[in-house]
Q: What sequence folds into this?
């Protein structure tokens, strides 16, 4: 297991607009006590990192989410070096996303990265195994060039069901309307795509409006 940098002061959450990512952000914000790991410039110890691929869908929501979580907000921009060439392996997108997030976390003195991956009921054990392999590989790769340590990549919601995510969101007071789970349109949600049907059903079970 990779070691973390000495005296890590920040936590970075990958915010892709999904319900798991909002839950991860709110959980991280709730775990911070006043004055904890506050940097000299007074910046929040919580960093919300919006990947470039999700930036268009979150353009109007990310600032509100960051404000509610009292977090720093970093909206990534497309970088040619991190783009997959046409015809390249689709799954490499995930590996490059984690690499990008890790590099930004290191630049912001973050000792922990929260990747809100959720595989329960989707791909199951195979997806969880691939996720673990990716995180371990990235940590080991960067450790070669940063012997003082690299951030750990945690997947705390990996085996949560949709209903468990919705229950947790309700308990934390997450505004369901800020989620951007629709893959057809940024806002309003189309309500008919598989992602919409899935999360609208989970939200209705806890009496939330989306």
A:
């Amino acid at each position: 297991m990779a070691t973390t940098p000495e005296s890590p002061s920040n936590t970075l959450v990958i915010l892709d607009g999904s319900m798991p990512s909002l839950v991860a952000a709110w959980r991280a914000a709730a775990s911070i006590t006043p004055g904890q790991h506050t940097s000299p410039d007074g910046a929040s110890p919580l960093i919300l990192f919006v990947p470039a691929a999700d930036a268009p869908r979150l353009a109007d929501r990310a600032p509100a989410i960051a404000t509610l979580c009292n977090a720093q907000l970093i909206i990534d921009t497309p970088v040619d070096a991190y783009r997959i060439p046409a015809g390249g392996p689709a799954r490499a997108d995930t590996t490059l996303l984690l690499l990008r997030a890790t590099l930004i976390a290191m630049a912001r003195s973050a000792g922990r990265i929260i990747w809100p991956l959720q595989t329960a009921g989707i791909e199951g054990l195979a997806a969880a195994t691939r996720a673990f392999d990716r995180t371990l590989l990235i940590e080991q790769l960067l450790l070669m060039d940063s012997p003082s340590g690299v951030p750990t990549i945690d997947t705390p919601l990996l085996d949560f069901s949709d209903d468990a995510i919705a229950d947790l969101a309700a308990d934390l007071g997450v505004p369901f309307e800020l989620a951007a789970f629709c893959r057809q349109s940024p806002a309003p949600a189309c309500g008919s795509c598989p992602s919409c049907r899935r999360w609208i059903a989970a939200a209705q079970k806890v009496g939330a409006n989306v």
Q: What stands out?
A: The beta strands are 10-14, 46-50, 72-75, 110-114, 152-154. The chain is about 40% helix and 10% strand.
